[in-house]
Write a structure and sequence with these properties.
Number of strands: 0
Number of domains: 1
Radius of gyration: 15 Å
Distance between the termini: 36 Å
Helix content: over 70%
Structural class: mainly alpha
Largest sheet: none
């Protein structure tokens, strides 16, 4: 895990979720701090590690089918279970009980399916156009934007 990924993850995930929380009238300093820690630790480790695995397993080839495979793998990493886990972390940071419940999977699935066309497009660019050293940062910004979407999805449910 690189220090720059830790700092970028902490700032970007906290900012994205902070905006989402503000929009949803759920802002709290505890949630903001929790997202900063999460973004600068677990997410700063797991996302670059998975992107590195994609690079090792499926070297970049400029052919569209190979590029779509890399995009699909990246998109599938942020699957309904990942989204549900992210929302569970938010509940935990806000001290909302129960932290885990079946509605998180429903929200995660719905959010994933509705965002799929955009996520595939963005992940195609992330995996096939950007240099590896920029992927976590750009992915974090996209995830921050998606955090707003996930928070609104949870509020709409």
């Amino acid at each position: 895990m690189h220090k720059k990924d830790m700092v970028a993850g902490a700032i970007i995930f906290a900012a994205g979720d902070g905006l989402a929380a503000t929009i949803g009238h759920e802002f709290s300093w505890q949630r903001l701090a929790g997202m900063a820690v999460l973004g600068g630790s677990l997410y700063a480790w797991e996302i670059p590690a998975f992107f590195g695995w994609i690079d090792r397993r499926f070297p970049l080839v400029r052919a569209v089918p190979d590029g779509m495979l890399r995009a699909a793998l990246s998109t599938l990493f942020f699957n309904p279970l990942w989204i549900a886990r992210h929302l569970a972390f938010i509940r935990w940071f806000q001290n909302v009980h129960p932290v885990l419940s079946g509605d998180l999977l429903t929200i995660g699935l719905r959010s994933f399916v509705y965002a799929l066309p955009v996520a595939l497009s963005v992940n195609y660019g992330l995996q096939n156009i950007l240099a590896a050293r920029h992927r976590f940062w750009v992915s974090s910004v996209f995830s921050g934007i998606m955090a707003v979407y996930y928070a609104l999805s949870a509020a709409w449910s």
